[in-house]
Design brief:
Elements lengths: L4 H8 L4 E3 L6 E3 L1 E4 L11 E4 L13 E2 L4 E5 L1 H32 L7 E6 L1 H14 L14 H11 L9 E7 L4 E12 L4 E10 L2 E7 L23 E6 L17 E3 L5 E6 L6
Antiparallel strand pairs: 1-2, 3-6, 4-5, 4-14, 7-12, 8-11, 9-10, 9-13, 9-14, 10-11
Helix pairs in contact: 2-3, 3-4
Length: 279
């Protein structure tokens, strides 16, 4: 089977110069780990198709050193994601990982849920930065401006005083899988609820983050990352992680026989991590 453009881009890491996928300035591009390297994205991954069996590897591409490609400038990579927002995401991921793994190591049952202190506004911006930087194929080669949804993310990302835009809701949940997924511009229609959801998605052990276009008729029974969209960027809050009741690892991108998913294969990256999660 012919290798997809996105898998070829990941395997070759992309051009050394281009237009940053976040700020859109032209210059030297750096290798951006999506999800961040500090969140455990350091092991070799085998890329596969989003839908289909695990045998349907697109060119059986294997990427060393975690899922990464040149898509951002040094400033966006090292300062905005690396120093300003990324550490809050890393701390949250690390705390949840250590807690879950410690229970397994001591043969203790996972509780129904647990609250963790975190900085939601910084985590939200880090997640949006990863989404903007992820799967950037044609974007780094063209000076075209961001599409509307990513322009909203861009403005929120660079304005630390901004509230979470009303157009978005961000959900998160426990994700006990070794697969890393970066899925952009997705739409899933659920037959059981008679509604369609447009979203951006990034999933890696132990959490999944889903950015949803807010619609009045969409009601997802999932925890919201930012409870108060007007809270300051430095405000800490309790984030509840449910360890017993959480969506299937294929939710929402594989809706089952009664649903439909619309996506662009070049905007979907799935990597099977060779290092298995302990939970």
């Amino acid at each position: 089977m012919r290798e997809s453009k996105i898998h070829q881009r990941i395997r070759t890491h992309g051009p050394k110069q281009g237009y940053c996928a976040i700020c859109r300035r032209f210059g030297s591009l750096t290798r951006e780990h999506i999800p961040p390297k500090s969140c455990g994205n350091i092991s070799a991954v085998k890329l596969r198709a989003l839908l289909g069996s695990s045998e349907a590897k697109l060119g059986s591409s294997i990427v060393q050193g975690g899922l990464n490609y040149r898509s951002t400038c040094s400033d966006c990579n090292n300062f905005w994601l690396g120093q300003k927002y990324g550490p809050s995401l890393t701390e949250f991921i690390s705390t949840v990982t250590k807690y879950a793994n410690s229970l397994v190591e001591h043969n203790l049952a996972l509780p129904l849920e647990r609250d963790f202190v975190a900085e939601p506004q910084k985590i939200a911006r880090a997640v949006m930065g990863c989404i903007m930087a992820g799967n950037a194929i044609d974007l780094v080669e063209s000076p075209r401006p961001h599409a509307h949804i990513y322009k909203l993310m861009h403005d929120y990302f660079f304005d630390s005083d901004a509230s979470l835009p009303d157009e978005f809701e961000i959900y998160y949940w426990f994700y006990p899988s070794k697969e890393v997924k970066v899925l952009k511009a997705m739409t899933t229609c659920f037959e059981i609820t008679k509604c369609c959801v447009a979203y951006e998605l990034i999933k890696f052990f132990p959490l999944a983050f889903m950015i949803v276009w807010r619609e009045e008729d969409i009601k997802l029974h999932l925890p919201k990352l930012v409870q108060d969209r007007h809270m300051s960027v430095d405000t800490k809050d309790y984030l509840t992680v449910k360890f017993k009741h959480f969506p299937a690892t294929s939710f929402p991108e594989v809706p089952g026989k009664s649903g439909t998913v619309l996506f662009n294969n070049e905007q979907a990256t799935v990597g099977e991590n060779f290092s298995k999660p302990q939970v």
